[in-house]
Write a structure and sequence with these properties.
- By secondary structure, the protein is α/β, with parallel strands linked by helices.
- The protein has 14 helices and 12 strands.
- Among the domains are: about 55-185, Rossmann fold (3-Layer(aba) Sandwich); about 205-360, Rossmann fold.
- It has helices at about 25-35, 45-50, 100-115, 135-150, 170-180, 205-220, 240-250, 270-280, 320-325, 340-345, 355-360, 360-375, 380-405, 410-430, and strands at about 55-65, 70-80, 85-95, 120-125, 160, 230-235, 255-260, 260-265, 290-295, 305-310, 330, 350-355.
- The radius of gyration is 21 Å and the shape is globular.
- Bound molecules: 1,4-dihydronicotinamide adenine dinucleotide and 2-oxoglutaric acid.
- 1,4-dihydronicotinamide adenine dinucleotide binds near residues 237, 240, 258, 333 and 362.
- Belongs to the Glu/Leu/Phe/Val dehydrogenases family.
- It comes from Acidocella aminolytica 101 = DSM 11237.
Amino acid sequence: MADTQHSPVYSANLSYVSPKPESPWGTYLAQVDRVLPYMGDLARWSGTLLRPKRVLIVDVPIQLDSGEIAHFEGYRVQHSLSRGPGKGGVRYHPDVTLEEVMALSAWMTVKNAAVNLPFGGAKGGIRLDPKMLSNQELERVTRRYTSEIGIIIGPQRDIPAPDVNTNAQTMAWMMDTYSANVGATTTGVVTGKPISLGGSLGRVKATGRGVFVTGREAMRRLKIPMEGARVAIQGFGNVGANAAELFAHSGAKVVAVQDHGGGVFNSNGLDVAALTEHVLTHGSVAGFSGGEILGLEDFWGADVDVIIPAALEGQITERRAERLRAKLVLEAANGPTVPGADDILASRGITVLPDVICNSGGVIVSYFEWVQDFSSFFWSEEEINLRLDKIITGALHHIWATCEKYNFSLRTGAFVVACERILQARNERGLYP
Ligand SMILES: NC(=O)C1=CN([C@@H]2O[C@H](COP(=O)(O)OP(=O)(O)OC[C@H]3O[C@@H](n4cnc5c(N)ncnc54)[C@H](O)[C@@H]3O)[C@@H](O)[C@H]2O)C=CC1
Ligand SMILES: O=C(O)CCC(=O)C(=O)O
């Protein structure tokens, strides 16, 4: 499956960002560029994809434990509201920028449409290093950020969720602050909450589960046996660790893992449960005694069948794409592959299962949580996992069939299916006044 080289033609020339081709927003533009020629008359709405609907930058001041006042820059971007309320996570990271959040929100729009959820796309973030803040400081920053973005979020407007360095506790603080500000307990304003506050069973593991389920289906199609398959994973947080557990449980061998602190390798397969325990106590896979040290770049050249980037954007560069030995890349992270690397992987016959389908398990179960909160009727974990499996495999097989029919890469096929739905909705809504 292949298509043409990436060279952005369409650009919205926004005054507030100047993306580089390999930056997250530049990557997103190159991906859209590739599908607009297939949109027919709907392409007249291309600006809907190339411009975020709403961009909010907020100053988040808090008092530190020392008594000092600190200011953090926060963002909430609603890329599209054409198919429903905004939906997408909130990231805490020292490298968060407006441009990154724009790209992440746009990928949410595409993801939600690719799996046909009734949402637009949004994302938020605060530029901070959570390791440098106490739990009390994190709570203060979360509550103040929620109040600042409170003017644009809400259960029918835009529903945040966890992403990198945020979790169920962060969502509980957000839900409580929003509820206090509007004067009513509003569980549906965020998803990924603790179960006791209207959270859904299965949400914590949902993204990793979706990566495993889509990976399993892709492996079947590519005739890569699960039993004994060698797997490498970058990122051992919520997504990477849960995906690792499911692959190991199904007979695959997780031989290489890398996180922000270092890498570990064991050709017989790492003990995933012991590694998870090690990360809980030490904060990183570094120093794990059940494997050898694996160098930063050696991770990308590891002899594996499947490689799973589950950390940050832009990790599979052109140089790393030349080194990869895997047959299949499962994009658990958002935007892990730069456009030039996509072309190299395609020319080397390496299949890339794109983020917008591969990591959609999280937002699918967030959708279930939102629905359960509205009806105050909660489902069993078994029911949730079955419904997740059905939606994600149905979406994957539809996209795969589209790719086979038109000779698209899986990324282009997923974008074609999703963008058609987004632009169709926009077209049918029309312009007002
Ligand atoms: N949490 C969720 O439900 C969803 C997350 N994602 C995406 O999955 C990815 C991971 O998210 P989470 O697991 O939630 O975050 P997390 O905060 O739980 O874990 C992040 C992991 O990435 C590692 N990491 C950070 N910088 C790194 C670097 N420079 N090199 C190697 N590893 C590095 C960290 O050590 C950690 O293991 C992100 O791209 C996120 O946007 C996508 C869909 C949903
Ligand atoms: O669960 C959600 O609403 C969004 C998760 C997310 O941020 C993502 O899929 O990248």
